[in-house]
């Protein structure tokens, strides 16, 4: 009976401590979070407004020399324009950010957490608005926006609130063998101004992801948004500025610059570090521009992830994951499931299951709740997708599912930039569609015989962002994944590495290098400084007299003995080294100056 009382008392104490933590760390801070008011009058779609009442925009092949034109890819409704900033204007934005950062660098983590909570509160209260703006500008559906924009951003904020300060505090390291009297640590200081060049596929999260890491680590940031997602980006900046002001910080900590290549090049030349997310071809140009000023660069480039299904996998469970991974946001997924390798015994069943799901996909206007798949953001990309499919069919591929192009939920013609979900079989690696990044709603399925063949096929590609392996045998799946040369791997799932914000995100080969997100991404926004100091005030480093200038005749022998004493592989070597050290010191003391 006494044991039960002990367990009961300990249980009550544990629950009391847990309740205190929940109240202290979560409830009280959230109750104290001020609400912000953001003007959204010009981005809210009025209930009386219909597409027929709006000006239809026809994208031009030649870029306007003065403006970034914005339109809805699903309806072609004109949204307005923004200026193309000149290099001197970009430099002015960076200058303002740099001035604001000088004060922010000394801000407390308490203030930084308050800023994040203000942002989180607004996001939670305005999910629909944020998703509508993203859907209208990028063509993605509301559900895809909620998954890719809201969920991931909230997880990023939550991780920073819980762990951000811990990973930015000084980290103590071992002093080694010779310097036992020293204390070593690594400090993480703000770099200054981070520059980010981000794409169009997730207009909200692509801004908030680098911004949150940069600001929480004490930096300012200037973001060059895609010309294909400028309208939404400039609205999202209002949210950030309102939150900064509410947290007692300068809105100049975060800037957005608009334009094309010249704008991005000016940004690269002006900041302390560049985070680039985009295509491999543009990534090369960013790297070249950064090399002129030796500015460090993070490159997160193209992806063409291998999706491997072994013969013991549950195809009924895997098929929905495969379709979601390939078709999310009309192929606007950030990890790019594009090459599907299925072991022969389950190949036919997998094709049937996937085809059945794809045939049920409803392509329509992004704001319609019945739409499963939205529009393609860039007009020229629709032509590229059709070219890839046509070329593959000419080379021997077969179309298991070829959707009806540009048809809405009721069969009416859609006026926007749409491409039907497509399933290709009998593809091979000689086809361009299996080598180039597709970034569209196309599932290309190829069969394999052995696990080693699956590994060889997965590695036979210039990209190396991520992979997914499905097998009921976890050991088997992990063995396959470990041999694939890529930056991320998921076992019996797809792209969930990004939902774990403690993990780094990035790839190898033509998928880029370095990492954003996770601990590595957060610390990547910092000046990493190694610091060594005396552990105790009464013990200091003293240079032995025979090593002081001019060095003694036996200085080299003394040094060799010292090395043997510290690093000898057995105790006798160490003892002999100590003996020779003492002999050398004794000999040096016997010598008298001339």
* Total number of beta strands: 20
Helix content: 40-55%
The coarse silhouette is globular
Q: On the 0-100 scale, what is the average pLDDT?
A: 90
| Stretches with pLDDT under 50, minimum 5 residues | 405-411
Q: Beta-strand percentage?
A: 15-25%
Major beta-sheet overview: 7 strands, mixed
InterPro entries: Ald_DH/histidinol_DH (IPR016161), Ald_DH_C (IPR016163), Ald_DH_CS_CYS (IPR016160), Ald_DH_CS_GLU (IPR029510), Ald_DH_N (IPR016162), Aldehyde_DH_dom (IPR015590)
Active site: 300
Keywords: Oxidoreductase
Domain Aldehyde dehydrogenase: 64-531
Features:
seven-stranded mixed sheet, 43% helix, oxidoreductase, alpha/beta, six-stranded mixed sheet, Aldehyde dehydrogenase domain-containing protein, 16% strand, 594 residues
Explain what you see.
It comes from Sphagnum jensenii. This is Aldehyde dehydrogenase domain-containing protein. InterPro entries: Ald_DH/histidinol_DH, Ald_DH_C, Ald_DH_CS_CYS, Ald_DH_CS_GLU, Ald_DH_N, Aldehyde_DH_dom. Belongs to the aldehyde dehydrogenase family. The chain has 17 helices and 20 strands. It is an alpha/beta fold. Helix 4 runs antiparallel to helix 7. The longest helix has 30 residues. It starts with a helix and ends with a helix.
């Amino acid at each position: 009976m006494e044991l039960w009382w002990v367990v009961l008392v300990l249980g009550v104490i544990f629950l009391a401590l847990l309740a205190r933590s929940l109240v202290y760390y979560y409830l009280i801070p959230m109750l104290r979070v001020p609400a912000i008011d953001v003007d959204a009058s010009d981005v809210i779609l009025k209930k009386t407004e219909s597409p027929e009442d709006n000006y239809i925009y026809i994208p031009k092949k030649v870029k306007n020399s003065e403006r970034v034109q914005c339109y809805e890819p699903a309806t072609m409704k004109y949204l307005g324009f923004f200026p193309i900033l000149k290099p001197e204007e970009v430099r002015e934005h960076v200058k303002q950010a740099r001035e604001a950062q000088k004060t922010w660098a000394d801000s407390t983590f308490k203030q930084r957490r308050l800023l994040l909570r203000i942002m989180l509160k607004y996001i939670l209260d305005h999910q629909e608005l944020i998703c509508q703006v993203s859907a209208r500008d990028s063509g993605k559906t509301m559900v895809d926006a909620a998954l890719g924009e809201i969920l991931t951003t909230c997880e990023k904020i939550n991780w920073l609130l819980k762990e951000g300060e811990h990973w930015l505090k000084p980290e103590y390291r071992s002093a080694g063998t010779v310097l036992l009297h020293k204390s070593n640590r690594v400090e993480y200081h703000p770099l200054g101004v981070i520059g980010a060049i981000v794409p169009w596929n997730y207009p909200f999260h692509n801004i908030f992801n680098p911004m949150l890491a940069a600001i929480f680590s004490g930096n300012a940031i200037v973001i060059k948004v895609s010309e294909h997602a400028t309208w939404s980006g400039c609205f999202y900046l209002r949210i950030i500025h309102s939150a900064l002001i509410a947290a007692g910080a300068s809105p100049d900590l975060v800037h957005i610059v608009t334009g094309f290549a010249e704008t991005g090049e000016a940004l690269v030349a002006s900041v302390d570090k560049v985070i680039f997310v985009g295509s491999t071809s543009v990534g090369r140009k960013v790297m070249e521009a950064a090399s002129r000023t030796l500015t460090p660069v993070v490159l997160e480039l193209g992806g063409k992830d291998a999706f491997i299904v072994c013969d013991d996998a549950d195809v009924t469970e895997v098929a929905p994951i495969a379709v979601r991974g390939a078709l999310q946001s009309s192929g606007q997924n950030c990890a790019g499931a594009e090459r599907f390798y299925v072991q022969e015994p389950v190949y036919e069943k997998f094709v049937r299951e996937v085809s059945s799901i794809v045939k049920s996909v409803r392509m329509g206007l992004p704001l319609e709740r019945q739409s499963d798949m939205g529009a393609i953001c860039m007009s020229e990309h629709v032509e590229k997708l059709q070219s890839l499919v046509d070329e593959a069919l000419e080379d021997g591929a077969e179309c298991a599912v070829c959707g009806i192009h540009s048809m809405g939920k009721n069969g009416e013609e859609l006026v926007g930039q749409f491409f039907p979900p497509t399933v290709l079989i009998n593809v091979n690696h000689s086809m361009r569609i299996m080598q180039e990044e597709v970034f569209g709603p196309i599932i290309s399925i190829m069969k394999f015989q052995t696990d080693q063949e699956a590994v060889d096929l997965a590695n036979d590609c210039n990209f190396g962002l991520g992979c997914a392996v499905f097998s009921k045998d976890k050991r088997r799946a992990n063995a396959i994944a470990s041999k694939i040369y890529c930056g991320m791997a998921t076992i019996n799932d797809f792209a969930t590495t990004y939902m774990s914000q403690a993990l780094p995100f990035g790839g190898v080969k033509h998928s880029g290098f370095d990492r954003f997100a996770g601990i590595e991404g957060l610390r990547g926004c910092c000046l990493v400084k190694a610091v060594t100091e005396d552990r105790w005030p009464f013990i200091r480093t003293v240079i032995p007299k025979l090593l002081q200038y001019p060095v003694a005749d036996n200085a080299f022998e003394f040094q060799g003995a010292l090395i043997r004493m510290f690093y000898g592989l057995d105790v006798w070597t160490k003892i002999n080294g100590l003996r020779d050290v003492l002999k050398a010191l004794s000999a040096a003391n016997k010598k008298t100056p001339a």
